[in-house]
Amino acid sequence: xxxxxxxxxxxxxxxxxxxxxxxxxxxxxxxxxxxxxxxxxxxxxxxxxxxxxxxxxxxxxxxxxxxxxxxxxxxxxxxxxxxxxxxxxxxxxxxxxxxxxxx
Length: 103
Hints:
The longest helix has 18 residues, at about 80-100. About 50% of the residues lie in helices and about 10% in strands. The radius of gyration is 17 Å and the shape is elongated. The mean pLDDT is about 85. The protein starts with 7 loop residues before the first strand and ends with a helix. Helix 1 (about 20-30) links the parallel strand 1 (about 10) and strand 2. By secondary structure, it is mainly alpha-helical.
């Protein structure tokens, strides 16, 4: 795997609404990618942190229960042959490299 210590990657922000993108990420990272059903999970995390800071929840464990109850996940697992995934990753890296001097 590309990231041997990363068995599952958590996805967030609006780009994650694209199933193709997350499937591609799973393939090139050779890891499961999880997308929360609640796409604004970052906002929930901020709200939970604020609640912890002012004592809405008595402990981090209680706050974790709120997050777990509020969110289910869809998983994207690698499906592409390793050779194809590495070829596409190479093309992805080439495209990124070409953009580095735009600014």
